[in-house]
Design brief:
about 240 residues, mainly alpha, 2 domains, 4-stranded mixed sheet, 4 strands, about 55% helix, cytoplasm, chromosome partition, ScpA-like_C, cell division, Segregation and condensation protein A
């Protein structure tokens, strides 16, 4: 008669041992060695019956359990008051189990992180080695550009009554497109030429943000002779050439 048995496959003897402890719902600090050893040996026996390949680690663990079991069966020697209490034969095994569980927990977290990283996409860092210390900001800084824009908005506000004339939305994409086309034609221009005499605040801001973005990606250079002076916008090739 053919012998049939379904056995769970374990990565190693420690996984089998921990599984037996959990199935029997016993305290890991008070392992019933007789019961766990019997079940461990039964697993090895069943594995041999179905020709399941087990590593030598399972045999080593079985030997360790039998050794602990034999020590537990020995009569306890009465200890004098001034002598240290005899160490529990299971202590070293318990420490190994706890250490292995910590290792498995860390391994699982690393595996989850690896899966997460495999699903992520990263943009390669842009190469700015050819740009010398942000030379596209010639004699400019964010503070001076902001103050200049503020002055331009104040001048534009005095030229027109906003309550009488209304502006359509002026998106950043539109401002960007106008700047690029103007540079293709003129190579350089002043910011005041771009906005004209009667510009709305939303237009000025959109133009200003579009210029900052083009500066950031290295397509244009802006220059300013002095604080609050008009901003000169240049196509980068025209300066490098």
């Amino acid at each position: 008669m053919e012998y049939k048995v379904n056995l769970k496959i374990y990565e190693g003897p420690m996984d089998l041992l921990i599984d037996l402890i959990k199935k029997n719902e016993v305290d890991i600090y008070d392992i019933p060695i007789h019961l766990i050893t019997s079940q461990f040996l039964e697993y090895i026996s069943d594995a041999n019956k179905i020709n399941m390949d087990l590593t030598s680690d399972f045999i080593v663990m079985a030997s360790t359990l039998l050794e602990i079991k034999s020590k537990m069966l020995l009569p306890k020697v009465k200890i004098e008051e001034d002598e240290d209490e005899e160490e529990d034969p299971r202590f070293e095994l318990v420490q190994k189990i706890l250490e292995y569980e910590r290792y498995k927990e860390v391994s699982e977290k690393l595996r989850e992180s690896e899966i997460y990283e495999l699903k992520a996409f990263y943009k390669l860092q842009d190469d700015f080695s050819t740009i010398d210390e942000l030379d596209f900001l010639k004699n400019c800084n964010v503070d001076s550009l902001f103050k200049t824009m503020k002055k331009i908005i104040e001048r534009s506000s005095r030229k027109v009554q906003v309550s009488e004339i209304y502006s359509d939305d002026f998106p950043l994409e539109k401002a960007n497109e106008i700047i690029v086309k103007k540079l293709q034609r003129d190579r350089k221009f002043l910011f005041s030429d771009l906005i004209g005499d009667y510009a709305f605040v939303d237009e000025i801001i959109s133009y200003f943000l579009a210029i900052l973005e083009l500066v950031r990606v290295g397509e244009i250079i802006v220059r300013q002779t002095d604080y609050f002076d008009d901003i000169e916008v240049l196509r980068r090739e025209s300066v490098e050439g």
